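Customer escalation, tier 2.

The customer says the design service returned an amino acid string that "doesn't look like it belongs to this structure." They asked us to rerun it and document both sides in this ticket. The original structure tokens are below, unchanged.
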């Protein structure tokens, strides 16, 4: 028995050490990548907000008009908030929940959150994913997202969750970059660049046909405008629009 232990102790110890290092490496990698993702998204915030500002302002004016028709303050959910640049567009006295899976983004959003709290009823940061929104059904008047559906893992489930948490008659507003038309040079370049974006920008896909998914969802009264944003050649195709529960 003693000889048996001597023969197998070292290999077993090496195997356990190898597995432990592999697990720790994975944990460390995920943490470092999550920190990197928060950093790079924050760095991109100003440029992206500038590129889509005109369409954001128009959409949030629609939200303002919705508020006036409702004759009451709004409960809003924003998905994938990043550094929270959209807070400045939100109608006064709203209650807004900011949902993002990356815990390291909160510190980058803090300045915008502090400023928004001066004119909004409440601003709550929640860590979570759009495919499993931690809110009861029929909770929000408005759900909004900008440049988020390109990177969610399960876009069908995400849109289903948006429909679930909206109040009856509630509105979904969105601005997204999307795939170019098929059989074009831009689509070819997008296909080439897609793996790069996936790695560098936290699972972002430039060939996702987001409009198709939205139109196939349970949402109704879908209105979508296609346009080209002032961004890199392969990221310019974009959509902005609204949909209703």
């Amino acid at each position: 028995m003693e000889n048996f232990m001597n023969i197998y102790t070292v290999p077993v110890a090496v195997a356990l050490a190898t597995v432990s290092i592999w697990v720790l490496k994975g944990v460390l990698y995920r943490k470092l990548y999550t920190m990197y993702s928060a950093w790079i998204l924050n760095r991109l915030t100003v440029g992206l907000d500038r590129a889509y500002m005109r369409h954001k302002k128009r959409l949030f004016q629609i939200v303002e008009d919705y508020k006036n028709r409702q004759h009451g303050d709004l409960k809003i959910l924003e998905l994938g908030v990043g550094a929270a640049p959209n807070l400045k567009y939100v109608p006064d006295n709203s209650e807004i929940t900011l949902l993002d899976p990356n815990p390291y983004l909160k510190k980058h959003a803090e300045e915008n959150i502090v400023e928004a709290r001066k004119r909004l009823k409440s601003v709550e940061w929640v860590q979570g994913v759009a495919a499993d929104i931690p809110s009861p059904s029929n909770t929000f008047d408005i759900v909004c997202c900008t440049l988020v559906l390109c990177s969610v893992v399960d876009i069908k489930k995400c849109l289903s969750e948006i429909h679930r948490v909206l109040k009856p008659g509630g509105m979904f507003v969105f601005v997204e970059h999307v795939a170019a038309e098929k059989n074009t040079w831009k689509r070819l370049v997008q296909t080439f660049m897609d793996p790069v974006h996936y790695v560098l920008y936290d699972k972002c896909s430039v060939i996702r046909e987001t409009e198709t998914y939205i139109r196939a969802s349970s949402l109704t009264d879908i209105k979508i405008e296609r346009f080209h944003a002032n961004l890199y050649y392969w990221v310019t195709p974009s959509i902005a629009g609204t949909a209703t529960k």
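Tier 2 assessment: The sequence is consistent with the input. DSSP finds five helices and seven strands in the chain. Strands lie at 75-79, 95-100, 122-127, 140-146, 166-177, 220-228, 237-244. Sent an explanation to the customer and offered a walkthrough call.
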